């Protein structure tokens, strides 16, 4: 396989991981007595999953890269049930993995050993929507896309959107501090989440769910759980600020002949499109080729183009004619200045979706390969593609290397796929990618979290004093360390 050539066809996924080995913590093992207690809490044995086949989807992640050995998954419906589960787990010293839609990309949502999986999937009720304030309160297990569809009926939208929207939960989004394609416009969940209800390791229910836009009474505790990846508590409900749904949307798919031209296009998009710019995504030719080769329904909107880089821009606003005029003028001046070489504007909803299908097809296409080394980095935009090229050079013909991502937010997705994991390939990629990211002053986890994949890598981005303070926070909320052990922070064992 050549580094820039075709990727070998679908190979059986090797479940080997790049995670560092850890030793099982001194937690209790499940007994018949525990199963009786959980059945009495949940009221029906069907919500206490113990069958080996039924447990498989709880034990494996979306990439088939991480696999745990849990012998028990629990499916609560109410906050009170989650609280009683945690009280029992705390008393019995049973380790727990909170699980949302299980679409996470760092092995955070699956057990490492035999931790009890607490699935939030049945906690899927919307409690209230206030169209005037633009606030929705819902349970943590609501699926992102369902929330957005419901909000559409009230003229509102979810402030975040990502390729996994059909499966991921809002509780999982909050727990990973997910970014996605509209971060550029609507910002971080640290701003959009107005309140949370959380069950702590002890079973205590922390109620900081008030749906207020402004509130300066004391410490803002909810912020600690946003991005905590289930290590500090189980998010059971959230109040989200939901912006008005735009009346007009446009998408344009552009080609650029070099990465500096992509950056120039971004500069122009910010200046010319201003308040209507809602996404600025880039993908390299290798990403586009892979997606179009893998899926028949993914087509290059600029058929025949052989440029090295592609950009997908979305605008959203309240006046179709005004937005279209702005977009047209941006495209004409970008073409004239040589920032872009070609472009297509979506003419209808079908084309709009087809453009996004290209971008969303990339991670799905990568996932059809035997081994996937997936990196999610924050790096200064000017140096972003250097990192892809340096990595491509290092892995040579051993893997197919692609770069794409949320360029508008400085978030690069660097991926190397191969037929199988190998020590040789791993050592060519890591720790190089982390070291270079640190040298560039970046982050080794822009939006996917650390999970088990990068629990020992936090030091590339955070100072020793910050990590020590995080450990203190962890001990305060979870003194026995039963919540999502072996994740996020370096394992003491
Ligand atoms: P899970 O995967 O189930 O869990 C993720 C973490 O959160 C785990 O540590 C878990 O223990 C914890 N957790 C889950 N629910 C709770 C809860 N209620 N309380 C406490 N802890 C909890 N991510 C992005 O940021 N941007 C993207 O653009 C993006 N695109 C993606 C595209 C695809 C095709 C896929 C497969 C994934 C993508 N992701 C993206 C990654 C993933 O979808 C997000 O991280 C998402 O937020 C995870 O939600 P989930 O419900 O699946 O959580
Ligand atoms: C994306 O932006 O497509 C997601 O974060 C998933 C990925 O990195 O592959
Ligand atoms: Zn992403």
UniProtKB/TrEMBL annotation:
Cofactors named for this entry: FAD
InterPro entries assigned to the protein according to its UniProt record, in alphabetical order: FAD-bd_oxidored_4_C (IPR004113), FAD-bd_PCMH (IPR016166), FAD-bd_PCMH-like_sf (IPR036318), FAD-bd_PCMH_sub1 (IPR016167), FAD-bd_PCMH_sub2 (IPR016169), FAD-linked_Oxase-like_C (IPR016164), FAD-oxidored/transferase_4 (IPR051264), Oxid_FAD_bind_N (IPR006094)
Gene3D superfamilies: 3.30.465.10, 3.30.70.2190, 3.30.70.2740, Uridine Diphospho-n-acetylenolpyruvylglucosamine Reductase, domain 2, Vanillyl-alcohol Oxidase, Chain A, domain 4
A single GO cellular-component term on record: mitochondrion
Domain FAD-binding PCMH-type positions: 66-245
Any Pfam family: FAD-oxidase_C
Signal peptide range in chain numbering: none
SUPFAM superfamilies (UniProt xref): FAD-binding/transporter-associated domain-like, FAD-linked oxidases, C-terminal domain
Coiled coil: none
This enzyme's EC code(s): 1.1.99.39
Keywords associated with the record: FAD, Flavoprotein, Oxidoreductase
Source domain of life: Eukaryota
GO molecular function terms listed in the Swiss-Prot or TrEMBL record: (R)-2-hydroxyglutarate dehydrogenase activity; FAD binding
Similarity annotation: Belongs to the FAD-binding oxidoreductase/transferase type 4 family.
Protein name from the UniProt record: D-2-hydroxyglutarate dehydrogenase
């Amino acid at each position: 396989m050549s580094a820039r050539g075709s990727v070998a066809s679908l190979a059986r996924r090797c479940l080997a991981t790049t995670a560092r080995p850890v030793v099982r913590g001194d937690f209790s093992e499940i007994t018949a007595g525990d199963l009786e207690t959980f059945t009495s809490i949940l009221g029906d044995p069907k919500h206490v999953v113990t069958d080996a086949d039924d447990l498989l989807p709880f034990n494996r992640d979306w990439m088939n890269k991480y696999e745990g050995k849990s012998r028990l998954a629990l499916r609560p419906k109410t906050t009170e049930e989650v609280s009683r589960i945690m009280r029992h787990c705390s008393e019995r010293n049973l380790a727990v993995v909170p699980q949302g839609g299980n679409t996470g990309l760092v092995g955070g949502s699956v057990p490492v050993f035999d931790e009890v999986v607490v699935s939030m999937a049945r906690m899927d009720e919307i409690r209230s929507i206030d169209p005037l304030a633009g606030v929705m309160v819902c349970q943590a297990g609501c699926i992102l896309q369902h929330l957005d569809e419901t909000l559409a009926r009230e003229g509102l939208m979810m402030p975040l959107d990502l390729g996994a929207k059909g499966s991921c939960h809002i509780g999982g989004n909050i727990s990973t501090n997910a970014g996605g394609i509209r971060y550029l416009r609507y910002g971080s969940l640290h701003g959009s989440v107005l309140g949370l209800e959380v069950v702590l390791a002890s079973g205590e229910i922390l109620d900081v769910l008030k749906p207020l836009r402004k509130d300066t009474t004391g410490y803002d505790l909810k912020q600690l759980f946003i991005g905590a990846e289930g290590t500090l508590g189980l998010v059971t409900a959230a109040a989200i600020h939901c912006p008005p749904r735009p009346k007009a949307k446009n998408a344009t798919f552009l080609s650029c002949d070099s990465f500096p031209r992509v950056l120039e296009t971004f500069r122009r998009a910010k200046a010319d499109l201003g308040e209507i710019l809602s996404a600025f995504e880039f993908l390299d030719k290798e990403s586009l080729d892979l997606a179009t080769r893998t899926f028949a329904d993914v087509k290059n909107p600029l058929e025949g183009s052989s440029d090295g880089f592609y950009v997908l821009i979305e605008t959203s606003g309240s006046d179709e004619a005004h937005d279209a005029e702005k977009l047209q003028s941006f495209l004409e001046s970008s073409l004239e200045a040589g920032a872009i070489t070609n472009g297509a504007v979506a003419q209808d909803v079908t084309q709009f979706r087809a453009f996004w299908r290209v971008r969303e097809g990339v991670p799905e296409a990568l996932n059809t390969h035997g081994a996937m080394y997936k990196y999610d980095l924050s790096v200064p935009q000017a140096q972003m593609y250097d990192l892809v090229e340096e990595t491509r050079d290092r892995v040579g013909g051993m893997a197919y290397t692609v770069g794409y991502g949320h360029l508008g937010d400085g978030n690069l997705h660097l991926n190397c796929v191969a037929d199988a994991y190998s020590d040789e390939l791993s050592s060519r990629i890591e720790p190089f990618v982390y070291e270079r990211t640190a040298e560039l002053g970046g982050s080794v986890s822009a939006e996917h979290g650390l999970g088990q994949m990068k629990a020992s890598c936090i030091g590339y981005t955070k100072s020793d004093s910050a990590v020590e303070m995080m450990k203190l926070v962890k001990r305060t909320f979870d003194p026995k360390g039963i919540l999502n052990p072996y994740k996020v922070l370096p394992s003491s064992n």
